[in-house]
Amino acid sequence: MTDVLVVGAGPTGLALAVTLRQFGVRVRIIDRAAQPTTVSKALAVWSASLEALQGMGVAEAFIAEGVRLRALSLGHGDLELARLAVGVGIDSPFGYPLLVPQSRTEALLTQRLSSLGVEVERGLELTGLEQEMNGVVATLRRPDGSTESAQALYLAGCDGAGSFVRHALEIPFEGFTEPETYLLGDVRIAGGGLDRRSIYIRWRNDSSIALFPFGENVWRIVTARQAADLAQAPPSLEELQALTDRHGPRGLKLSDATWLSAFRINERLAARYRKGRCFLAGDAAHIHSPAGGQGMNTGLQDAVNLGWKLAHAVTGHSDRDLLLQSYEAERRPVAKAVVAAAAQKLRLGMAPSKLGLARDAAVAALGRLPVVQRRLQAELSETEIVYRGGGLVTLGAPPRRAGRGEAGGRALDAELGDGTTLWPRISRPCHSLLLFGVPAARVAALTKPAGDRLQVMALEPRQGTAARRYRVRGPGWVLIRPDQVVAARGSLKDLERLETYLAKVLSKT
User: Fold this and answer.
1) What does the pLDDT read at residue 344?
2) What's the confidence (pLDDT) of residue 77?
3) How large is the angle between the packed helices 11-22 and 295-315, nearest 10 degrees?
4) Terminal CA-to-CA distance of the chain, rounded, Å?
5) Alpha carbons 383 and 92: distance in angstroms, whole number
6) Helix or strand or coil: residue 77?
7) 473, 503, 505: which is closest to 491 by C-alpha?
8) Residue 119: its pLDDT value, please?
């Protein structure tokens, strides 16, 4: 029997398997595809995901391969109406988004998982699923038609929008399908003077086109299909060229297509993220418009949230029900908001529009408002997400309007006064207790039962920026979860809160 069976070796499944292995959990990860993807698919890797990837030990590899974005250009044909800075003002050690083809994302995570002693088992398809009181029994089919009965304590369905796991659990996938057919092409573009560190969205003749850079002179083109009679047939390079000429900047010459696809956009959310010992994550739990590039990122955040909780449940160092119930309570509201926001961006930027000059004027006006740019970047980066529901957040006793750096909100990076920063030290597979003006001996009796599941860091309030960043006045403490979310915080008067959290989450049950 294995501890966790991960179904699906896309970015979410790989990130979950890496997270689990870093906690020493026994993992199997299977994928029915015989080979990993070779196409670009999801491109954007935003700041919160880069923070998580640092915790997995692969952030530097992503940075070395990715194209760092710097602007979003909106306009009518050749005319730029607004240029929104990207990666400015994001409060993160990785204050910028990267464009990395999904094929490389999967390759880098697969390499990391292999270094942890786990290989993806390909050509192995889940065809049956039964839950028992103490585990899950999965029927796996090999390419030759033979089957295997695999047992696991828990199972995670990271198997995409058509998830077998979700269907087997009979969990509704609520939402709808957009009526338009969209076209996608990964092509080389010559001419037009495009900046390969900028995304372009242009509209003309009642439709729009989006251009995303990645690789050397390689661009992702997305636009709506005009010819209804072609239905879902893949586009030709000639069709994409004609649509680019009609709706985009002039003078662009397309060539060397490596991927051409037609698709419909679904906006759907699983009614539940858990049933018994089985969980959903990534596209199996939520799908939406690619506008904003948050689909894969939301899945990566699902993985790091679920991963440490499953690890603690497996080892018995937690109130298991408290932790496992908190996964849906924390992550489903985030996905619900992302689905809604992506639909709004699709209608504003990509959907056919008859607004004409009215849209031009609105975009030009909004593009000049700094508050609009700040709000957009905070939303896309996912660094300002605050968990507000579930028993785990409640255990941290957050204030009524908790924000960044408070219980449920993401942790903050800070200078430590010795030339180093806080983030690398809290990006480890354990909880981190920051003590400000509190001797470690003062809390030794509370922290000892947690063992190596907790690292204690005594910080001098007058050195570095940590005390200021966390708004600590006087002796106090901040407890940070392995997914870089603040678990709880308080003063010396609030040590009972710390004791309660440690007892329920980090002590042997």
Assistant:
1) 76
2) 87
3) 30
4) 22
5) 7
6) coil
7) 473
8) 98
- Is the alpha carbon torsion for 305, 306, 308, 313 positive or negative? positive
Centre a 10 Å sphere on the Cβ of residue 130 and count the other Cβ atoms it contains. 11
- Helices marked H in 235-294 — which ranges? 237-247
Helices (H), 352-421: 357-367, 370-381, 391-395
Is 63:98 a contact under the CB 8 Å cutoff? yes
How far, in Å, are 137, 211, 334, 367 from residue 72 at the CA level?
48, 10, 24, 10
Of 167, 217, 216, 157, nearest to 190 by C-alpha is 217
Per the structure block, which two tokens stand in for 6?
A: 């991960």
Q: Are 130 and 137 in contact (CB under 8 A)?
A: yes
* Amino acid making up residue 162: G
Q: How far apart are CA 17 and CA 5, in angstroms?
A: 9
Q: Which two tokens stand for residue 118?
A: 């786990």
Number of continuous H segments (helices) and E segments (strands) in the chain: 15, 23
Q: How many degrees, rounded to 5, is the angle at CA 257 between CA 253 and CA 261? A: 115
Closest CA to 97 of 73, 71, 74: 71
| Residue 446 identity (one-letter amino acid) | L
Closest by CA position to 331, among listed 356, 359, 307, 366: 307
Q: How far apart are CA 370 and CA 378, in angstroms?
A: 12
pTM above 0.70, yes or no: yes
Strands 44-45 and 98-99: antiparallel
Of residues 274, 279, 282, 287, the one with CA closest to residue 298: 282
Structure-token match 């942790």, residue found: 411
For residue 305, which of 401, 408, 381 has the smallest C-alpha distance? 408
Q: Which amino acid is at 475?
A: P
Average pLDDT of the chain?
91
CB distance 502 to 494 below 8 Å: no
Q: Which helix (H) or strand (E) holds 469?
A: helix 466-469
Nearest to 274 by CA among 407, 128, 131: 131
SS3 (DSSP) at 268: strand
- pLDDT of 354 reads 53
**For residue 293, what are its two tokens?**
């590039």
pLDDT at 356: 53
Which is it for the CA torsion 422, 423, 429, 434, positive or negative?
positive
Question: In this structure, what are the phi and psi dihedrals at residue 385, rounded to the nearest 5 degrees?
Answer: -65, 135
Query: What count of other Cβ atoms lies within 10 Å of the Cβ of residue 384?
Result: 16
Give the pLDDT of residue 504: 94
The one-letter amino acid code at 265 reads: I
The DSSP letter of residue 411 is P
The Cα–Cα gap between 353 and 351 comes to 6
Three-class secondary structure assignment of 221-246 = EEEECCCHHHCCCCCCHHHHHHHHHH
The residues of the chain scoring below 50 in pLDDT are: none
